[in-house]
Amino acid sequence: LLAEVAAKSSFKQRYKLFYTASTIELIYGDASLSPLLLDKALSITPFKAKPMVMILLAKVYELNKEYDQALLLFEQASTTFSAEWRVFLEFAQFYVHRNNIPKAIQVLTEALKIHHGSGRLWAFRVQLEAFNSVETQISVLRSAIQAVPKSGEVWCEAARIVLNPQTRYFNLQSAKQFLEFAYRFTPQHGDSLVEMIRVELLEKGFNADL
């Protein structure tokens, strides 16, 4: 059916069908066909939509353990499409998968020079700074709040910091306040709700009202 639609569709829309076909093959069919279909998609994709295809192709290379190819694509995407913040998010995650947190932090640091108002990038940067120290996390958190004070993702990371009982910053009341900010500022409440459950469990144990 996809082949028939691809043959009949307009040239400008055809890349979407190759993209869909590659995803289907990756999950349900022959995974070796996925990069071939994405290569074809990339050759006919309009310039503005290319980052989406490049990111998926890089992820497929990563799944196939072709890390050099994946890295090359991420570097190319972050240079050519630096206006797209999501490219940097995926690039940093690639380094996290490789257990190279300093390199992931470096990617995010450079990205935030361009995308200073991206809450997702700031929140990820705050999260990864735990690799260094909680003090470094708080320092970056302060910068993040100055840059994006209405980012629910950033306030959720603030709550996670004060929800760690192994640090001197452990404070359930502060966590509740930060999570209230997160809940109000971000329409997607998944992470915030999970942390709210943690607060309830830490505060009331087996008597938690879930």
Explain what this protein looks like in three dimensions:
This protein is mainly alpha-helical and 210 residues long. It is built from twelve helices and no strands. The protein has helices spanning 2-8, 11-28, 33-44, 50-63, 67-80, 85-97, 101-114, 119-128, 134-147, 152-162, 172-185, 190-204. Helix 4 packs antiparallel against helix 5 (67-80), helix 7 runs antiparallel to helix 8 (119-128) and helix 11 (172-185) packs antiparallel against helix 12. The protein is elongated.
What is Rg? 21 Å
How many E strands?
0
Class by helix and strand content?
mainly alpha
Biggest β-sheet: count, sense, barrel? none
Strand content: under 5%
Distance between the termini: 46 Å
| Silhouette | elongated
Q: Helix-strand pattern, N to C? A: HHHHHHHHHHHH
Tally of individual helices:
12
Mean pLDDT: 93
Give the uncertain stretches in residue-range form.
Answer: none
